[in-house]
């Protein structure tokens, strides 16, 4: 399936509509047009930070409209944020999402983890790992080659066949102004997928996302109603539903301190998830900050000694990024340094 039209949504932060990203948006539209792709910004997606923050119902309407519109082949999230959980009542109170849900490509990461869980609830297979502003609008002269490879595979084939480690990783950009157009990021040699424990080969369907966003479902200082709403609409799958799945976890640009990382892993340990999944895959920490500390915490706190844990996947908040399909059978093979996906 070749993607002909992309609908861009702001389901979390409304930064897409602010003047200070206009130069990035222009780059992104031009790149998508070069692929022969028509771009539609859903009606509320460019209304700015304040409107989007105060209007979760408008965000939900955009997502529903994008699913209803048969001309849109792919729904692409503008960026992450921190409150997309607020869409829950507008998507689930009267089964609004279930009524219109159909299989089409949905791509986003970070706070969009919540939307992946929402779509998982209604049986939609989604794709995790890239978004419009961070990836398509990359300020270098071209998209980063590793990120571009997976994005092109997705728009040309509607699927991802396999992922493998990137040869390099980049220091995150600190300046996103027009002055940075055409300026490359500092790159470093990457190490491959690291097996921390367990079998080098395992399989299952992958689900998961940003660790801090997942932690918000259980416990959060951010918003007082997050835990309540996520529980009310049973957003996080039950232990039965997690059986034999592979959990993906990656950490955000906030680069959580080891104490917080430990607290978040312990919360999942307490839930019992590490006793039922078939394997755990962990994204590379941004800028490799706390790289070894996180590894040690995983080994210290996950009590299931038989659980396969694979570290240093190039996905989520560490640049560059692959794309991981959720809800399709995956085979992890650390010896071959690949994760393969079946149709």
TrEMBL record:
Record keywords, A-Z: Carboxypeptidase, Hydrolase, Protease
One GO MF term attached to the UniProt entry: carboxypeptidase activity
Species name: Parvimonas micra
UniProt KW RNA-binding keyword: no
Full protein name: Carboxypeptidase
Similarity comment: Belongs to the peptidase S66 family.
Record domain LD-carboxypeptidase N-terminal: where: 6-129
Ranges of residues in domain LD-carboxypeptidase C-terminal: 203-332
